[in-house]
Protein: Glucanase
Amino acid sequence: MRKEEKWPIGFRYLSALLLVLILLTLNISSISVAASADGSAVKVKGEAPFKAFPQHTTYKKGSIKPNHVTQTQMDKTVKRLYDEWKAKYVKENPYVKGQYYVWYADGDWFKENEVTVSEAHGYGMLITALMAGHDADAKKYFDGMYRYFRAHPSSNNPDLMAWQQADNGKALVDVNGVDSATDGDMDIAYALLLANKQWGSGGAINYLTQARKVINAIMKSEVNQTEWILKNGDWATSGDRALATRPSDFMLQHMKDFQVATGDTRWSKVINKTYSIMKSLYNNNSPNAGLLPDFVVKIKGSFVPAPPEYLESEFDGDYNYNSSRTPWRIGTDYLLTGDDRAKAQLTTLNKWIRKKTNNDPHKIMAGYKLNGSAPIADYEDISFSAPLMVSAMLDSSNQAWLNKLWDYNTAVKTADELYFGNNLRLLSVIVVSGNWWTPYSKLR
Structure:
């Protein structure tokens, strides 16, 4: 019989400790991050965000944030507005468990059974990805929105989203054309890039792979590859419709990240053409106000404001509800990338609106003629005032104005405001508070 070996007590304790450490290491590795061959962030298990709110991103040198409130106060306000937004607008598909959408039909002009559009869906995916860390369930809602998006493909390209859904009493179904709207698809693609950086792509949804599918579909079906412009949707395939674009789709920072994510250098052509169109519109149509029209068409070789009733309303060629988003869209590109090709236009816009309102946000009206001479509405709407917070961040000359805009916009009750204003307000305060971030772009 073999004699039993006796190990010192200290050695046995050390061995046990080493075993515990090994087990802990194995457990931690299951939620660790690794850079995969395709550049995605890989998380095998676990759902804690990598870039939890708040982020306090460093923006372009010389840009400003409100300085009459603390960073903590701004973050708290964003959290409050998010919680109110989520309670009012994030809905689960009543017929398919685990699918979520952003309800948008809280105005009295909607048909009773309309529930959402791809524009709203893109907003929801952006917001939930950016607010992870504040909302412990952000990933659940994001993934549910992704599933809803995939359940409603465009008939022209299945990697794009059908633009509108309604409730027929048995299901949420596509209505009014099963085709796409470019803005919703661009936000969905960008949100998937955010999700890859936020949660990694090692789980049930490979966010990076799906983002690339959507980005490539946008290039294929929503970009005119002769003019290198963003079309209004995948339905705009010929004639003057294929030669039209919409300034509220000028998501320049998105497109820069699309190029990095896919390696597709054609995005540079779209970016450069977009800047060129903006400069032409500014110089030729709004040199004193810096305003952009709702829609733009190519006539006799030039891109010009669309005529009345071109697509949506008599104000298609004016600064109306579509282009109210441009100070946010274009301003965010400047803040995150430092690209100053639109800075002159945004500077003119800031000076004009401050003079027009005598530095009083209550006097910002819901739309204007491009020359800045007259408003096209006689009422206020945060759909217009909220995005102007982002353009006001350009430099310190707007500090007092930005402070007023912050107070004005954040004081409006979510319950009293409608879908469009509430969503643009929340997206804008995320930027203004320093909590918008980019998956790839770097400051110049």
